[in-house]
Write a sequence for this structure.
Protein backbone atom coordinates (compact mmCIF):
# COMPACT_ATOMS: atom_id res chain seq x y z
CA UNK A 1 0.00 0.00 0.00
CA UNK A 2 1.45 3.36 -1.03
CA UNK A 3 1.88 6.31 1.34
CA UNK A 4 -0.27 9.45 1.13
CA UNK A 5 0.95 12.21 -1.21
CA UNK A 6 2.68 9.47 -3.19
CA UNK A 7 3.30 11.42 -6.38
CA UNK A 8 4.38 14.62 -4.62
CA UNK A 9 6.79 12.91 -2.21
CA UNK A 10 8.24 10.73 -4.98
CA UNK A 11 9.01 13.69 -7.23
CA UNK A 12 10.39 15.87 -4.42
CA UNK A 13 12.71 13.04 -3.36
CA UNK A 14 13.94 12.56 -6.93
CA UNK A 15 14.47 16.28 -7.49
CA UNK A 16 16.76 16.43 -4.46
CA UNK A 17 18.42 13.01 -4.41
CA UNK A 18 18.81 12.30 -8.14
CA UNK A 19 20.88 15.47 -8.45
CA UNK A 20 22.93 14.37 -5.43
CA UNK A 21 23.49 10.92 -6.96
CA UNK A 22 24.55 12.21 -10.38
CA UNK A 23 27.02 14.53 -8.65
CA UNK A 24 28.37 11.66 -6.56
CA UNK A 25 29.09 9.85 -9.82
CA UNK A 26 30.76 12.96 -11.23
CA UNK A 27 32.97 13.38 -8.16
CA UNK A 28 33.99 9.73 -8.39
CA UNK A 29 34.71 10.10 -12.11
CA UNK A 30 36.83 13.21 -11.54
CA UNK A 31 38.82 11.48 -8.79
CA UNK A 32 40.15 8.54 -10.82
CA UNK A 33 43.51 8.66 -12.63
CA UNK A 34 43.56 8.02 -16.36
CA UNK A 35 44.65 4.40 -15.99
CA UNK A 36 41.26 3.52 -14.47
CA UNK A 37 39.34 4.05 -17.69
CA UNK A 38 36.72 1.42 -16.84
CA UNK A 39 35.86 3.06 -13.52
CA UNK A 40 35.70 6.45 -15.24
CA UNK A 41 33.35 5.05 -17.89
CA UNK A 42 31.08 3.40 -15.32
CA UNK A 43 30.90 6.52 -13.17
CA UNK A 44 30.04 8.62 -16.21
CA UNK A 45 27.26 6.16 -17.13
CA UNK A 46 25.67 6.52 -13.70
CA UNK A 47 25.98 10.30 -13.94
CA UNK A 48 24.12 10.30 -17.23
CA UNK A 49 21.43 7.90 -15.98
CA UNK A 50 20.68 9.96 -12.88
CA UNK A 51 20.60 13.09 -15.02
CA UNK A 52 17.81 11.32 -16.87
CA UNK A 53 15.97 10.63 -13.60
CA UNK A 54 16.37 14.27 -12.60
CA UNK A 55 15.19 15.60 -15.95
CA UNK A 56 12.08 13.43 -15.90
CA UNK A 57 11.30 14.40 -12.30
CA UNK A 58 11.59 18.08 -13.24
CA UNK A 59 9.26 17.60 -16.19
CA UNK A 60 6.68 15.68 -14.17
CA UNK A 61 7.01 17.92 -11.12
CA UNK A 62 6.33 21.22 -12.87
CA UNK A 63 3.09 22.54 -11.36
CA UNK A 64 3.07 19.72 -8.77
CA UNK A 65 6.01 20.29 -6.41
CA UNK A 66 5.41 22.53 -3.41
CA UNK A 67 6.68 26.09 -3.34
CA UNK A 68 8.50 25.40 -0.06
CA UNK A 69 10.67 22.79 -1.76
CA UNK A 70 11.27 24.90 -4.86
CA UNK A 71 12.33 27.89 -2.74
CA UNK A 72 14.29 25.91 -0.13
CA UNK A 73 17.64 25.97 -1.95
CA UNK A 74 17.88 22.17 -1.81
CA UNK A 75 17.14 21.61 -5.50
CA UNK A 76 19.34 24.43 -6.81
CA UNK A 77 20.92 27.60 -5.46
CA UNK A 78 21.96 30.92 -6.91
CA UNK A 79 25.37 29.33 -7.55
CA UNK A 80 24.38 25.97 -9.07
CA UNK A 81 24.48 26.88 -12.75
CA UNK A 82 27.83 28.71 -12.49
CA UNK A 83 29.22 25.84 -10.41
CA UNK A 84 28.15 23.31 -13.05
CA UNK A 85 29.66 25.31 -15.90
CA UNK A 86 32.93 25.85 -14.03
CA UNK A 87 33.17 22.19 -12.98
CA UNK A 88 32.52 21.00 -16.54
CA UNK A 89 35.29 23.33 -17.76
CA UNK A 90 37.77 22.28 -15.05
CA UNK A 91 37.21 18.52 -15.34
CA UNK A 92 36.17 18.07 -18.96
CA UNK A 93 33.14 16.09 -17.74
CA UNK A 94 29.88 16.96 -19.49
CA UNK A 95 27.02 18.24 -17.34
CA UNK A 96 23.45 18.74 -18.55
CA UNK A 97 23.10 22.32 -17.33
CA UNK A 98 19.79 22.58 -19.17
CA UNK A 99 18.19 20.58 -16.35
CA UNK A 100 19.12 23.31 -13.87
CA UNK A 101 17.66 25.94 -16.18
CA UNK A 102 14.48 23.86 -16.43
CA UNK A 103 14.23 23.54 -12.65
CA UNK A 104 14.65 27.27 -12.19
CA UNK A 105 11.56 27.77 -14.35
CA UNK A 106 9.41 25.23 -12.49
CA UNK A 107 6.11 26.40 -11.05
CA UNK A 108 4.62 25.21 -7.80
CA UNK A 109 0.99 24.26 -7.42
CA UNK A 110 -1.49 21.47 -7.13
CA UNK A 111 -1.65 20.17 -10.65
CA UNK A 112 -4.25 17.57 -11.45
CA UNK A 113 -2.98 14.03 -10.92
CA UNK A 114 -4.44 11.43 -13.26
CA UNK A 115 -4.10 7.68 -13.20
CA UNK A 116 -1.71 7.95 -16.11
CA UNK A 117 0.42 10.44 -14.18
CA UNK A 118 0.58 8.11 -11.18
CA UNK A 119 1.76 5.31 -13.44
CA UNK A 120 4.53 7.53 -14.83
CA UNK A 121 5.72 8.23 -11.28
CA UNK A 122 5.63 4.51 -10.46
CA UNK A 123 7.81 3.74 -13.47
CA UNK A 124 10.23 6.52 -12.53
CA UNK A 125 10.49 5.14 -8.99
CA UNK A 126 11.21 1.62 -10.23
CA UNK A 127 13.82 2.90 -12.67
CA UNK A 128 15.50 4.87 -9.89
CA UNK A 129 15.56 1.80 -7.63
CA UNK A 130 17.27 -0.31 -10.29
CA UNK A 131 19.87 2.40 -10.81
CA UNK A 132 20.40 2.82 -7.08
CA UNK A 133 21.07 -0.88 -6.63
CA UNK A 134 23.76 -0.61 -9.28
CA UNK A 135 25.23 2.64 -7.98
CA UNK A 136 25.43 1.38 -4.41
CA UNK A 137 27.17 -1.80 -5.60
CA UNK A 138 29.59 0.32 -7.67
CA UNK A 139 30.43 2.56 -4.70
CA UNK A 140 30.91 -0.46 -2.45
CA UNK A 141 33.26 -2.01 -5.01
CA UNK A 142 35.29 1.20 -5.13
CA UNK A 143 35.50 1.28 -1.33
CA UNK A 144 36.67 -2.35 -1.18
CA UNK A 145 39.35 -1.79 -3.81
CA UNK A 146 40.55 1.46 -2.24
CA UNK A 147 40.67 -0.12 1.22
CA UNK A 148 42.69 -3.02 -0.19
CA UNK A 149 45.11 -0.54 -1.83
CA UNK A 150 44.21 -1.87 -5.28
CA UNK A 151 42.70 1.39 -6.53
CA UNK A 152 43.62 5.06 -6.23
CA UNK A 153 41.12 7.87 -6.01
CA UNK A 154 41.40 11.48 -4.93
CA UNK A 155 38.30 10.93 -2.76
CA UNK A 156 38.69 10.05 0.91
CA UNK A 157 37.56 6.53 1.92
CA UNK A 158 35.27 8.23 4.45
CA UNK A 159 33.73 10.25 1.63
CA UNK A 160 32.98 7.03 -0.25
CA UNK A 161 31.29 5.61 2.88
CA UNK A 162 29.43 8.91 3.20
CA UNK A 163 27.99 8.75 -0.34
CA UNK A 164 27.07 5.08 0.09
CA UNK A 165 24.99 6.04 3.14
CA UNK A 166 23.19 8.79 1.23
CA UNK A 167 22.41 6.45 -1.67
CA UNK A 168 21.01 3.86 0.73
CA UNK A 169 18.80 6.50 2.32
CA UNK A 170 17.45 7.53 -1.10
CA UNK A 171 16.74 3.90 -1.92
CA UNK A 172 14.97 3.38 1.40
CA UNK A 173 12.73 6.40 0.91
CA UNK A 174 11.65 5.33 -2.57
CA UNK A 175 11.10 1.71 -1.51
CA UNK A 176 8.84 2.89 1.30
CA UNK A 177 6.89 5.05 -1.13
CA UNK A 178 6.51 2.03 -3.41
CA UNK A 179 5.08 0.07 -0.50
CA UNK A 180 7.85 -2.50 -0.19
CA UNK A 181 7.98 -4.23 3.19
CA UNK A 182 11.20 -6.19 3.14
CA UNK A 183 14.57 -6.33 4.87
CA UNK A 184 16.32 -3.63 2.87
CA UNK A 185 17.91 -1.32 5.41
CA UNK A 186 16.37 1.99 6.33
CA UNK A 187 19.29 4.25 7.21
CA UNK A 188 17.29 6.51 9.51
CA UNK A 189 15.89 3.77 11.72
CA UNK A 190 19.20 1.89 11.76
CA UNK A 191 20.75 5.01 13.30
CA UNK A 192 17.91 5.36 15.75
CA UNK A 193 17.99 1.72 16.77
CA UNK A 194 21.74 1.63 17.32
CA UNK A 195 21.95 5.02 19.00
CA UNK A 196 25.24 5.63 17.26
CA UNK A 197 26.68 6.94 14.03
CA UNK A 198 28.25 3.83 12.60
CA UNK A 199 25.87 1.27 11.11
CA UNK A 200 26.81 -2.39 11.03
CA UNK A 201 25.21 -5.10 8.89
CA UNK A 202 23.38 -2.37 7.01
CA UNK A 203 21.99 -4.46 4.21
CA UNK A 204 19.82 -6.82 6.28
CA UNK A 205 18.09 -4.65 8.87
CA UNK A 206 14.34 -4.43 9.13
CA UNK A 207 12.93 -0.97 8.39
CA UNK A 208 9.88 -1.53 10.62
CA UNK A 209 8.42 1.05 12.96
CA UNK A 210 5.71 3.66 12.68
CA UNK A 211 5.69 5.98 9.71
CA UNK A 212 5.40 9.74 9.89
CA UNK A 213 4.06 10.99 6.58
CA UNK A 214 5.07 14.52 7.52
CA UNK A 215 8.63 13.42 6.89
CA UNK A 216 9.50 12.30 3.38
CA UNK A 217 10.51 8.80 4.41
CA UNK A 218 10.81 6.56 7.43
CA UNK A 219 11.86 7.25 11.00
CA UNK A 220 11.02 10.09 13.36
CA UNK A 221 12.76 13.42 13.73
CA UNK A 222 15.22 11.98 16.28
CA UNK A 223 16.58 9.57 13.66
CA UNK A 224 16.53 12.31 11.03
CA UNK A 225 18.70 14.52 13.22
CA UNK A 226 21.16 11.75 13.98
CA UNK A 227 21.54 10.86 10.31
CA UNK A 228 21.94 14.40 9.00
CA UNK A 229 24.11 15.61 11.90
CA UNK A 230 26.53 12.84 10.97
CA UNK A 231 26.43 14.00 7.35
CA UNK A 232 27.00 17.63 8.38
CA UNK A 233 29.92 16.69 10.63
CA UNK A 234 31.58 14.79 7.81
CA UNK A 235 31.07 17.73 5.45
CA UNK A 236 33.02 19.88 7.90
CA UNK A 237 35.82 17.30 8.01
CA UNK A 238 35.97 17.12 4.20
CA UNK A 239 35.96 20.91 3.85
CA UNK A 240 38.72 21.21 6.44
CA UNK A 241 40.82 18.63 4.61
CA UNK A 242 40.31 20.08 1.12
CA UNK A 243 41.06 23.72 1.91
CA UNK A 244 44.53 25.00 1.08
CA UNK A 245 46.72 25.21 4.21
CA UNK A 246 46.92 28.97 3.68
CA UNK A 247 43.18 29.29 4.43
CA UNK A 248 43.76 29.12 8.18
CA UNK A 249 40.65 31.00 9.27
CA UNK A 250 38.33 28.86 7.13
CA UNK A 251 40.04 25.68 8.32
CA UNK A 252 39.50 26.70 11.94
CA UNK A 253 35.85 27.53 11.26
CA UNK A 254 35.25 24.18 9.55
CA UNK A 255 36.95 22.41 12.44
CA UNK A 256 34.66 24.25 14.86
CA UNK A 257 31.58 23.02 13.00
CA UNK A 258 32.93 19.45 13.06
CA UNK A 259 33.35 19.65 16.84
CA UNK A 260 29.88 21.13 17.35
CA UNK A 261 28.21 18.39 15.31
CA UNK A 262 30.23 15.77 17.15
CA UNK A 263 28.79 17.12 20.41
CA UNK A 264 25.24 17.13 19.02
CA UNK A 265 25.68 13.51 17.95
CA UNK A 266 26.98 12.54 21.39
CA UNK A 267 23.88 14.04 22.99
CA UNK A 268 21.63 12.23 20.53
CA UNK A 269 23.38 8.95 21.38
CA UNK A 270 22.34 9.56 24.99
CA UNK A 271 18.74 9.59 23.71
CA UNK A 272 18.38 13.31 24.31
CA UNK A 273 17.67 14.30 20.72
CA UNK A 274 13.92 14.67 21.25
CA UNK A 275 14.52 17.35 23.85
CA UNK A 276 13.27 20.68 22.61
CA UNK A 277 16.46 22.54 23.45
CA UNK A 278 18.61 20.09 21.48
CA UNK A 279 16.40 20.30 18.39
CA UNK A 280 16.51 24.09 18.56
CA UNK A 281 20.29 24.03 19.03
CA UNK A 282 20.52 21.79 15.96
CA UNK A 283 18.39 24.20 13.95
CA UNK A 284 20.46 27.24 14.98
CA UNK A 285 23.66 25.37 14.18
CA UNK A 286 22.50 24.37 10.70
CA UNK A 287 21.54 27.98 9.93
CA UNK A 288 25.06 29.14 10.82
CA UNK A 289 26.57 26.23 8.91
CA UNK A 290 24.37 26.89 5.87
CA UNK A 291 25.56 30.50 5.83
CA UNK A 292 29.19 29.36 6.08
CA UNK A 293 28.70 26.97 3.17
CA UNK A 294 26.95 29.65 1.10
CA UNK A 295 29.84 32.07 1.66
CA UNK A 296 32.26 29.29 0.78
CA UNK A 297 30.41 28.41 -2.41
CA UNK A 298 30.39 32.05 -3.44
CA UNK A 299 34.11 32.35 -2.70
CA UNK A 300 35.00 29.20 -4.62
CA UNK A 301 32.89 30.05 -7.68
CA UNK A 302 34.47 33.52 -7.69
CA UNK A 303 37.98 32.01 -7.35
CA UNK A 304 38.65 33.81 -4.05
CA UNK A 305 39.26 30.71 -1.91
CA UNK A 306 42.26 28.41 -2.38
CA UNK A 307 41.26 24.76 -2.15
CA UNK A 308 40.91 21.40 -3.87
CA UNK A 309 37.11 21.77 -3.73
CA UNK A 310 35.32 21.63 -7.06
CA UNK A 311 32.76 24.44 -7.41
CA UNK A 312 29.98 21.88 -7.77
CA UNK A 313 31.06 20.08 -4.60
CA UNK A 314 30.75 23.35 -2.68
CA UNK A 315 27.25 23.88 -4.05
CA UNK A 316 26.41 20.22 -3.38
CA UNK A 317 27.07 20.43 0.36
CA UNK A 318 25.20 23.75 0.53
CA UNK A 319 22.10 22.12 -0.98
CA UNK A 320 22.28 19.28 1.53
CA UNK A 321 22.37 21.81 4.39
CA UNK A 322 19.31 23.53 2.91
CA UNK A 323 17.53 20.18 2.66
CA UNK A 324 18.26 19.38 6.30
CA UNK A 325 17.09 22.82 7.41
CA UNK A 326 13.77 22.30 5.61
CA UNK A 327 13.31 18.95 7.34
CA UNK A 328 13.97 20.54 10.73
CA UNK A 329 11.52 23.37 10.02
CA UNK A 330 8.93 20.91 8.74
CA UNK A 331 9.12 18.76 11.87
CA UNK A 332 9.62 21.60 14.33
Amino acid sequence: MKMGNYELLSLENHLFFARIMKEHALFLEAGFPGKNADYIRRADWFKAEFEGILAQAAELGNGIVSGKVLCSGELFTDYTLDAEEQTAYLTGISIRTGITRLERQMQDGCGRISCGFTRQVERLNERALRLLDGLIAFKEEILREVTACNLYTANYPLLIKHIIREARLYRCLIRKLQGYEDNVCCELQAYERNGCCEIQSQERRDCGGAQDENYDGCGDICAVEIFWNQIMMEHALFIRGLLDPSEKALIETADGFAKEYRELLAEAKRKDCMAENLSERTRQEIIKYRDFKAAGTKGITECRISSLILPLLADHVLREANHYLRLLDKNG
In short: Residues 190-219 have pLDDT under 50 and may be disordered. Residues 70 and 108 are 7 Å apart (CA to CA). The radius of gyration is 19 Å. The first helix runs from residue 6 to 31.
